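Hey, I was hoping to borrow your eyes for a little while. There's a protein on my desk that I can't quite get my head around. The fold is given in discrete form, as structure tokens running alongside the sequence. I'd be grateful if you could look everything over and explain what you see. Here's the protein in full, and shout if anything looks odd to you:
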Amino acid sequence: MPYEITSDNAAILHYVYNKYSDLKGRRDRCDCAPTEEDTRRCFMLPFDREAFIKSSLLSDEELRQFFLEHLIWNNETTNFEMMREGLLIREHTPQILMRLFKKLPDYGLQLASPLESKVTVVDEFIIPE
């Protein structure tokens, strides 16, 4: 059962750099020069601008170190304390939905196209284990 949590200090952290290859490939997604001024036309968030500049200018080893230092939360004690206090969670719903969507064709089902009805059988469909 979903429940709502509200807080004036809440934030949802979403990184498009889930893997090192995502960060490394960042330099191929834009024709900006790797400067703070030029990246402002392509990237809204300061961290995205920094990630593009780093992926464009650093060696593979330096970029891997940047990835480990800025995108991986690997302090188990801090992570555990934050989870215990409800400040950090791992959201599994998107992962579960993606698995469901990938299995739909196996069961002869498909999602409606944008022009078709939004009514779906997914609400009543349970994938057997």
